[in-house]
Amino acid sequence: MKKLRLTGVLALGAAASLLLAGCASGSEPEGGAAGDTITLGFIPSWTDGLSTAYLLANQLEQLGYDVEMEELTEAGVLYAGLSKGDIDIYPSAWSEVTHAEYMAEFGSEIEDLGAYYDNASLTIAVPSYTDIESLDELAANADKFGGEIIGIEPGAGLTGVAQDSMMPAYGLDGKYELITSSTATMLTELGSAIDKKEDIVVTLWRPFWAYNEYDVKDLKDPLGAMGESEALHFLGKKGFAEQYPDIAELIAGIKLDDAAYGSLEGLVTGGDYEDDPAGAVTAWIAENPDAFSTLIAAK
Questions:
Q1: Which domain holds residue 144?
Q2: Which of 37, 126, 128, 273 is in the most buried spot, having the most CB atoms within 10 Å?
Q3: 103 and 234 share a domain?
């Protein structure tokens, strides 16, 4: 069994100091081989990245690699780390739309290794019992929601889209405040409101296990202010595919439909495996041995 190392969650300042001190960009990659350590960077509160990070870690171990799991708190730090080569792979990047600003800044030093899911979207949601259906109804119903939209981390792409695009497009500036803290806090607020049959409006995204856990509905977006749907990508440091062609081939074959992704995230984030994501992935592979074309079963 190869070694899986988990590092602690890094705050923005500390992470930036660590990651930006790495090797100079643009250097020629050295040859890689099984036995090398591959560093996966992800934000654990974003459960798409949590799920695919542990899925990829499992598969890399089957190929003979050691894996280091680098837990971060800010997307910008992740992209900076990739661009400097301090992180080898970001296993669930919203690089087309949500993280486009980071790609504009760092993309020339980052390599796209392929997309595993092709219909991701950012959403604004309310409980199913709430009697509005569209974002263009929010302005007239600010009192219903206490003038608050409950969001996630302030550095998330979703937060930027909600604050800078959706709210001005629908005339919500001055009528609503976007409350940011963390994904976990948002979900706690959502669950509490639903338990009390209270109205609440939150920022969400698809795919996300919360849609199976909570009785919510997406508000229609007639102005398209939340952006188009996009694919979720594996990103690597520059030159990664040349250095590790076996890993690049494995990643290119990872394609998950809604059912496969939903079952993976459901096992990783809840039930018997809530505190054992590696065990959840092992169970998921046993249940889904044909989930994607390059899947390697446990030896």
A1: 120-218
A2: 126
A3: yes
